[in-house]
Design goal:
The protein is 10% helix and 54% strand. By secondary structure, the chain is mainly beta. The strands form eight sheets. Strands 9-16-15-11-13 form a five-stranded mixed beta sheet, with no helix packed on it.
């Protein structure tokens, strides 16, 4: 065989081998590709849902359709989430599959998106796409404390924003919104919230009408890694119909008793009890206390009280700029120069939609009485103390139901036989004597006396205190008390009367 024939044979064998090789390595019937993968939110947060959307394509180079049986997200061989029954893809078709999962721990997570399908020949076809996720720490917490409001009235909504993470959150911006809500203060900015800390925020929204609306909270912040993140939440806000109700009431008050001298045995007005109402003790002007109360469910503003005696105004006086629901404010009005038998107190206020009024009528009691404790004398025999004196009526009107009693105090306690003394009624400019008994020890410094009485049916209480130091020491030689002497005289008079009658009969 010549050289030409040998070369021809070798080349033939070579090309025949190539043909056999190409025939053995057949082109796949289905070619799957992952065209796109998106993550929402772009910066996932630990413990919060994250959605991965992957698009798979049956390439135009495929010759068969394919059934996508399963899509999964896998991390370190563990399936985090999967979905089945995606559907069939014809040649050149594609589909996008969303998968939602959560990551309990912050940090870098290397995951794989896997597609598994079956072609027309029953062969398994797979394709995968690696994905790197950077998961931030936990999102801030949002706690809303008020979920009720009143139509047409500003609602104060208090919210607490907390940082449960181990890093500082910065540039925290919180805003509120909702259908039918007018925002007066609907946005707050917090420069930073330290780990584990909470920040209270106050908002002010005004609902337009009653019913329900969805209150939406949107919060944006910057994580420790410098990424921007957002958190949203919503809750139902109950909106009640507006109820505007204001009440006016009048209570009587008397000027504080003036302190007198402390020399025992002379006229003593007493030392005012320090537990008396401070407001009344600071106000020297006599008169009545007028209280304006908001008993509705919405605030009222520009509250002004106008007292009127007949057709004459005693002079309007401001009460408060704003009276919140469930609150009240008081003013004192002098009636010393008001001869009218009836005074009308009218409160004028703004409801937000116009002016309104509420009123009450008061009938002053002329020439009211007022008691004073005078002529007090203390006599001490060891631990026994006898207190005598007079209850005087400094006013022109009658006081009734007058009772004077020894009150409990350190080292002082009322004792038999005269713990209290019923005086009864005292006319204007009149007085009546009393006698009381008490037991004292070495700790006693003052003896408190409490006087209860009625003025035109209005119950009042006065408390006066007298120093123990300086009390007269009787030592048992002070003689019988006035009560004992009086009792003896009554008995002697009865004996003499009976004796005289017997003598006449004899």
């Amino acid at each position: 065989m010549n050289r030409y024939a040998v070369a021809t044979a070798v080349l033939g064998v070579f090309f025949f081998g190539i043909a056999l090789t190409m025939t053995g390595a057949a082109v796949p019937e289905v070619r799957l590709t992952v065209d796109d993968v998106t993550v929402s939110p772009e910066t996932p947060t630990a413990g919060e849902p994250v959605t991965v959307e992957a698009t798979v394509q049956n390439s135009a180079g495929s010759t068969q359709a394919v059934e996508i049986d399963r899509v999964a997200i896998v991390e370190d061989g563990e399936t985090l989430v999967d979905a089945g029954g995606v559907g069939s893809l014809a040649v050149g078709d594609g589909t996008t599959v969303p998968l939602t999962t959560t990551f309990d721990e912050a940090g870098v997570h290397e995951v794989t998106v896997e597609f598994t399908g079956t072609d027309e020949d029953g062969q398994t076809v797979t394709v995968s796409q690696p994905l790197t996720l950077v998961v931030e720490g936990g999102a801030p917490s949002i706690e809303t404390r008020n979920n009720t409001a009143v139509a047409g009235a500003p609602a104060n909504i208090t919210m607490t924003v907390g940082n449960p993470t181990e890093a500082t959150l910065r540039n925290v911006v919180v805003s509120l919104d909702g259908s039918g809500l007018v925002g007066e203060i609907d946005r707050r900015v917090v420069p930073s919230i330290d780990p584990g800390e909470e920040t209270p925020l106050n908002f002010r929204l005004q609902p337009e009408s009653a019913g329900e609306t969805l209150l939406e909270t949107n919060m944006s912040y910057t994580t420790a890694a410098g990424t921007e993140a957002t958190v949203t939440s919503s809750e139902v806000l109950q909106i009640q119909p507006r109820e505007e109700r204001v009440a006016v009431r009048v209570t009587t008050r008397e000027p504080a008793q003036e302190s007198g001298g402390t020399d025992l045995g002379v006229g003593v007005a007493g030392i005012l009890d320090q537990q008396n109402n401070n407001e009344e003790s600071e106000e020297s002007e006599s008169g009545v206390r007028v209280t304006v109360s908001n008993v509705g469910n919405a605030p009222v503003t520009d509250v002004v009280l106008d007292p009127r005696a007949g057709n004459r105004s005693l002079g309007p006086r401001p009460v408060t700029d704003e009276l919140a629901a469930g609150t009240e404010e008081s003013v004192v009005v002098s009636l010393e120069r008001t001869p009218a038998a009836e005074v009308r107190f009218e409160a004028q206020y703004n409801t937000g939609g116009g002016e309104s009024t509420a009123s009450t009528t008061y009938r002053p009691t002329p020439n009211q009485g007022a008691v004073a404790v005078t002529g007090v004398d203390l006599e001490r025999d060891g631990e026994e103390l006898v207190i005598t004196g007079d209850i005087g009526n400094r006013g022109e009107g009658e006081v009734t139901g007058v009772v004077v009693a020894v009150d409990e105090a350190e080292g002082v306690s009322p004792s038999y036989p005269a713990r209290d003394f019923f005086v009864g009624s005292i006319d204007g400019d009149g007085f009546a004597p009393f006698e009381l008994t008490a037991t004292i020890d070495e700790n006693a410094t003052q003896v408190p006396l409490e006087v209860d009485y009625l003025v035109a049916g209005d119950e009042r209480t006065e408390t006066v205190r007298f120093p123990v130091e300086g009390a007269t020491e009787t030592g048992g030689n002070g003689g019988p008390s006035a009560l004992v002497i009086g009792f003896v005289l009554v008995v002697l008079l009865a004996i003499l009367t009976v004796g005289g009658l017997w003598y006449r009969r004899g």
